[in-house]
Fold:
Amino acid sequence: MSELSREDLLGVVRDVWERHDPVPEHLVASMQAAAAIAASDLDAELMELVERSTELVGARGAGAYTLRFVHGDTDLLLRIAVDGDRSRVDGWVVPPEPMTIRALPGEVPASHAAVVTESGRFELTGLPLGLLRLRLEPHDATRPAFATPTFEI
Amino acid sequence: MTGIGAVRPAGPANEVWQRATDGFNRWVAGESSGLDDLVAVMTPVLWHVVRSYRLSESAAEDVVQTTWLALVRRRSAILDATAIGGWLTTTARREAWRVANATAAATPADEEELAPMLPRQRSAEDAVVQQDEGDRLWAAVDGLPERCRRLLRIVAFENRPDYRELAADLDMPVGSIGPTRGRCLAKLRVALMQTGEYR
Structure:
């Protein structure tokens, strides 16, 4: 005699509901269309790299440099510090604006994101080395997102 | 236990949430197919969660759509991609609860209050035809008290739902969700044993 486990029972519940109240056939396709249309005007515009500086910090495997990007009236200044196989980005957005900054590491997107403070600052830590882009998403939904070109840490 | 393949290995859970996170990440990185995949994997979950709020099919579809539009509009509010599934189900439940309450005035009496007194109504056809396994499993789930049916449906499709919100939605004290879930599962276990599908 084998006792039905909690997961077995919940599995039965899922099966039963999937059979007796199935997702309407058209629903997934129409939701995909609705979401795609809503998202279509959110495509990120590209920022332009206007300055790059390198400062060597000395210690092996460590270093820091700054990048400056602009898009419209927004300036983005980044200080990127490498420590071993990880890096951190300290950023300033000028003028300050409520937005979420996401790191999009090249091939393996991970969840590195931060919200800009009132003074326009943000930090992203523990980033992997390699290719990186930052995506800036203004919380004012009428403003389109923008993104930096890919740069390498 | 005997026979049937109805018992699946643990959870839809991990795979669904992992695929949702992957789709979200790809979408945020600029791949529109990531959004398609996220919608494809999570829409069925949202459907079952929303339908447990006693909404009609068309009201449930509206709630699911509202949830997807909220995601697109408020993507910047989601900092942790691994939490995307939970964000979606929570958003859908809030909206479902709001819509259900807006229309609740029309519902005469809480079915829950009557449920213990009355046997669940079944059509004559149901009673006779319950020959196949699927029908017997359905009868076991459908025969549970209303509160159990709703709670178990939500718990079965969600990934660790927030008990605080769930308690408010189901009009139960927070502390009783865990024990109630346990009692509901026990009732279901007994009902399934009685079907003869499991022993």
